[in-house]
Design goal:
heterodimer, A: about 290 residues, alpha+beta, SH3 type barrels, 5 helices, flat, B: about 450 residues, Rossmann fold, 19 strands
Chain lengths: ~290, ~450
């Protein structure tokens, strides 16, 4: 267990943890026409230049480019995600209004509920890599992950009336495996008429591949109609520290526990000549 | 040797004060509750507030009793009622009973109400509705609000939950009724620094073509506030538009807002702040600046994005519950993180749930910086205190965003046709100067 030191002088810590770059490797530009089946975990897409970058040249004579902080942040984020997955975590992207984050959760941290045929809840955390004044930080925040297991078709089989699902927000996998956002328009037998929110078109698809979005209020509504006992809202309140009188202190303590776990399991993060170290000390605000 | 890393922070020294009398600049207080109780509202010319009621027969007596208590007050938290807090009398002018509690019943009652009632006879309609999940949009709450709004009637919804535990709701409902009737409960006690106008903009709210949730068509609107944070008017674009037109519509909305401001105040504002919950695109900023410079060559514009949708948290281990205290903020590279709902020495009795989310405030200014980060923090905190739908002090978002959020909920269920009607001149005259959506 890595012990994280709390700044005792300035007692205003945040959930951003300092990452120190101990050593840097080289970065190469992947040619646009390169289609070799090489280790993609060492490649990232660089939005600024519109091309792929790799932290190794795989023995090719690729152009080496000057590494900037944003490129390095992308490599760190990718390697961190891969490392978490190796340690048994699952990750998913969270679309935030100000930049994207990721949620990591582990099967070992599933919160037991009575209705695991409908949903699962995991005691996970949200993370994001941040670059402020040229310094890298890892932002960690406790996060409850909800996964819906029962499709619309299965929910109907369990007794959920079709009209209770009309106009609700859902997702389904498109023809190329992409996640499509939609509203449920109507349900008939095994077919579900959904309105794709991006195209605005109505589509008829198999109700077995349409899932409600994992909003706690929506899940609770489904559970209530099906006469189930578990209360996802209560779970959410408990794990979001809403029931604690000193919620902020509870969240901070939990953040330190998660950071300590991550520091032990993932850091130092080493890849292709790079080494990133986690500084086990909270970063305080100085007024 | 690891370098010492820290964040720089600061604190807003003085809690923004509120003014409760148009004619007396000493009628100030930091909290709406005490300000209203001692001084009454900013606008004291209301006289009689005429209320219409739509309710099922079964709840008629309870609703009338609630209105009666609003008028005369209750002993605990609302002594003296609206007469004391808002210097106004309440009069029930028209009641329509629904035959049941289904959506159809409410729609019928709503249409009966608008058919038989003249706009001048009713300031606000109080509607008793069953409590429904906000996951569903085809409910009495949304549909009745839409029907009444498009005919020029602001509405205030009541549910059984409010009637069961009304003690702490009286003042909030009273404040909302007062504001929706076109009067001003309170404003800021002083001008916000380097601010003439604040425009809360929303340009990409989805709208439906029928009663279902929706679609790839959008609408836009602005709420405009003056230098005292006083809500001035609401302005929307009548026609829905496609996604690719969104950027262009921002220019149109800002232009209309500034031109209306000029009509009301007689001058073109010099220091213009545009608040948005998203990031502004480069093209949006360039086009808005170009348009504004055409109206006034020395105009200054601040494009400010405000959002709490991020994972950053700060704590204060010295505060009572560990939360980062209200009015404290942290400087990041080009933005600040401001706490508006954290622990507070002044509002110690106020109970908070959960960990406060900080507001991420980021601004870009043209042609040069005219408001500092510290002034921007003050402006944002001050604007959190102007939500007339609640007298609570610890509100996270500034009204520029709160009002947009309230409207966004409604626009997802108002049909394109209804929205168009709402923007039509006949209805708009009655509604544009009233915050009917709060």
């Amino acid at each position: 267990m890595v012990k994280i030191e709390i700044d005792d002088v300035y007692r205003k810590p945040g959930n951003l943890f300092h990452l120190e770059v101990a050593s840097k490797g080289k970065v190469f530009k992947v040619p646009l026409d390169f289609s070799g089946n090489y280790n993609r975990s060492l490649m990232v897409y660089d939005k600024a230049s519109g091309c792929r970058l790799a932290c190794t040249n795989f023995g090719f004579n690729w152009e080496e480019i000057k590494l900037d902080s944003f490129m390095l942040k992308n490599f760190i984020a990718k390697q961190f995600g891969l490392c978490l997955r190796k340690k048994g975590y699952l990750t998913s992207k969270v679309g935030r209004k100000f930049g994207n984050s990721y949620v990591a959760y582990s099967e070992s941290k599933e919160i037991p509920t009575q209705d695991r045929d409908i949903y699962k809840v995991f005691d996970g955390f949200e993370y994001r890599f941040v670059l402020i004044s040229g310094i890298f930080y890892l932002c960690i925040n406790p996060h409850l992950k909800i996964k819906i297991l029962a499709s619309i078709g299965e929910l109907m089989q369990k007794g959920l009336p079709a009209e209770r699902m009309e106009s609700l927000r859902a997702v389904y996998s498109g023809s190329e495996g992409e996640t499509c956002r939609c509203n449920i328009v109507s349900l008939e037998n095994n077919k579900c008429c959904v309105r794709n929110l991006d195209s605005g078109n109505d589509e008829y698809i198999d109700s077995g591949i349409v899932y409600l979005i994992p909003r706690p209020e929506m899940v609770q509504n489904v559970l209530k109609v099906l006469g189930r006992r578990s209360n996802i809202i209560e779970i959410q309140r408990q794990y979001s520290f809403l029931k604690q009188r000193e919620a902020a202190k509870g969240r901070f303590t939990k953040t330190l526990e998660i950071a300590s776990d991550v520091a032990e399991q993932v850091f130092p993060l080493k890849f292709a000549g790079f080494e990133i170290q986690f500084v086990p000390k909270t970063i305080s605000v100085r007024m | 040797m690891v370098e010492e890393v820290f964040f720089k922070g600061a604190v807003i020294d003085e809690e923004p004060i509120l003014l409760f009398d148009k004619a007396d600049s000493s009628a100030v207080h930091k909290e709406p509750y005490f300000g209203l109780k001692v001084f009454g509202p900013f606008d004291k010319q209301c006289g009689v507030l005429k209320v219409g009621i739509i309710t099922p027969q079964s709840a008629r007596a309870s609703v009338q009793a609630f209105i009666r208590t609003l008028e005369v007050g209750d002993a605990r938290y609302f002594s003296g009622g609206m007469k004391n807090f808002f210097r106004t009398d309440l009069k029930i002018s028209h009641i329509v009973e629904t035959t049941g509690i289904s959506l159809k019943d409410y729609m019928y009652a709503g249409s009966q109400f608008v058919e038989k009632t003249d706009q001048s006879d009713v300031d606000v309609v109080v509607c008793f509705i069953p409590r429904t999940s906000n996951l569903y949009t085809n409910t009495p709450y949304y549909r009745l609000k839409a029907v009444l709004s498009v005919h020029g009637f602001p509405s205030q919804m009541l549910t059984q939950a409010t009637l069961n535990r009304p003690t702490f709701s009286y003042l909030n409902v009273a404040s909302a009724l007062f504001a929706k009737s076109g009067h001003i409960p309170w404003v800021l006690g002083g001008e916000m620094p380097n601010t003439n106008i604040v425009i809360g903009i929303s340009i990409a709210d989805r709208i439906c073509d029928d009663n279902r949730l929706v679609q790839n068509r959008y609408i836009g609107y602005v709420n405009v506030f003056d230098q005292y944070g006083k809500w001035m008017f609401f302005e929307g674009i009548a026609e829905a538009y496609k996604k690719e037109e969104i950027s262009g519509k921002m220019v149109e909305l800002v232009k209309r807002a500034v031109e209306k401001y000029k009509i009301e105040k007689g001058i073109i504002p010099e220091n213009i702040h545009i608040h948005y919950w998203k990031r502004f695109s480069k093209i949006e900023k360039e086009n808005v600046i170009k348009m504004l410079q055409g109206l006034k060559s020395d105009v200054k514009v601040a494009f400010t994005s405000i959002n709490a949708d991020h994972p950053y948290r700060f704590y204060d281990l010295e505060s009572c519950d560990g939360s980062f205290m209200r009015g404290y903020y942290v400087y990041l590279d080009d933005s600040i993180l401001l706490s508006t709902t954290g622990a507070s020495d002044e509002f110690r009795r106020t109970f908070r749930m959960g960990t406060p989310k900080l507001l991420h405030v980021k601004t870009e200014q043209y042609p040069e910086e005219f408001i500092t980060s510290d002034e921007l923090a003050y402006q944002t905190l001050a604007l959190t205190k102007l939500n007339w739908a609640t007298t609570s002090v610890l509100i996270r978002e500034p009204i520029t965003l709160t009002f947009s959020n309230s409207l966004a909920y409604l626009t997802s269920v108002i049909t394109e046709g209804e929205w168009k009607q709402l923007q039509a001149s006949g209805v708009n005259i009655n509604m544009r100067n009233r915050p009917w959506f709060i």
